[in-house]
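Severity: low
Component: inverse-folding endpoint
Summary: output formatting inconsistent between runs
Steps to reproduce: submit the following structure tokens with default settings.
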């Protein structure tokens, strides 16, 4: 369930009881379990199709960004089979850079902005379009923010706000809320990111790049959706903005640069001081200062999970893993 909620490609091989063990204590309905979790299940029951069915399961997991189960009864596991006895190719094709949508209208919405913000999520990280987003942001004068799952993508950039939304700083929320144009790339924009759909101005121009054609940003009046690979759509936006010519200062005033340069998250916090206790936020900020800069940060769910998300830096977006997709305490242990 955690993998489905986080859209993680995962092939989960499970053993099932043999046909003569139905009704035994170990016999449970795997089909019902996987269906209840919203995860497809492949039944392996033919030695001549075992290889091709497995390859197809891997392809489904990758292309649909989903977990998938492979169910294999124990008696079937003991049968003789000839590996690669069919013509199934093991080649896994990469994602297409194709997309659909009105690039010209989307680029025009960004080009005319006075206070643009770019919000990137995990989709932007996996598409590898950080450099393109940097260049695009430089052209329109944008500030950079991320969702929780994009944490670290713009690490150390002078105009980066860090995480926006419920786990972000008040400064990040305030500046994002002032944006008159927002480019959202590979980000779910759920209730936590948008603080129950109050993060963005209702009159903000929104350009959204997402593989899901049905996405929409709640409580905004103008939205341009480019559906497909994030790298492809961002590259097309950048090409169009380059063709329009000129660069804008946008949100990047000298005053804004100085504000971001001198900002410290602890300036917004009133720490709780009690005898023999320490405020967990203060502890995390102290750890952030003393631990090596080259680090991986893994979070679990629970009362204090938001503190390292908010106050611990990472070297890049691949240095952060969260275990809260299912909201169950303990999943972080398996990720660390």
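Observed output (run 2 of 3):
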């Amino acid at each position: 369930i955690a993998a489905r909620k986080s859209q993680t490609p995962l092939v989960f091989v499970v053993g099932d009881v043999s046909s003569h063990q139905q009704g035994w204590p170990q016999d449970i309905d795997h089909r019902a379990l996987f269906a209840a979790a919203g995860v497809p299940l492949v039944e392996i029951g033919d030695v001549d199709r075992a290889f091709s069915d497995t390859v197809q399961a891997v392809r489904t997991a990758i292309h649909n960004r989903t977990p998938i189960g492979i169910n294999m009864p124990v008696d079937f596991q003991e049968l003789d089979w000839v590996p690669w006895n069919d013509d199934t190719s093991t080649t896994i094709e990469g994602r297409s850079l194709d997309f659909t949508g009105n690039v010209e209208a989307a680029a025009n919405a960004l080009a005319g902005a006075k206070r643009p913000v770019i919000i990137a999520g995990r989709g932007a990280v996996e598409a590898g379009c950080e450099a393109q987003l940097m260049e695009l942001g430089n052209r329109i004068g944008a500030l950079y923010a991320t969702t929780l799952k994009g944490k670290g993508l713009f690490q150390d950039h002078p105009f980066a706000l860090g995480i926006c939304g419920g786990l972000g700083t008040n400064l990040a929320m305030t500046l994002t809320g002032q944006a008159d144009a927002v480019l959202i790339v590979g980000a779910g924009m759920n209730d936590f990111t948008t603080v129950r759909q109050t993060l963005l101005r209702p009159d903000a121009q929104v350009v959204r790049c997402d593989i899901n054609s049905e996405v929409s940003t709640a409580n905004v009046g103008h939205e341009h959706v480019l559906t497909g690979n994030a790298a492809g759509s961002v590259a097309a936006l950048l090409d169009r903005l380059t063709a329009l010519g000129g660069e804008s200062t946008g949100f990047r005033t000298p005053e804004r640069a100085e504000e971001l340069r001198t900002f410290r998250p602890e300036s917004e916090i009133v720490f709780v001081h009690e005898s023999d206790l320490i405020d967990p936020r203060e502890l995390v900020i102290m750890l952030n200062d003393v631990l090596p800069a080259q680090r991986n940060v893994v979070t679990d769910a629970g009362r204090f999970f938001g503190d390292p998300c908010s106050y611990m830096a990472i070297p890049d977006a691949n240095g952060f893993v969260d275990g809260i997709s299912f909201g169950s305490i303990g999943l972080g242990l398996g990720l660390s």
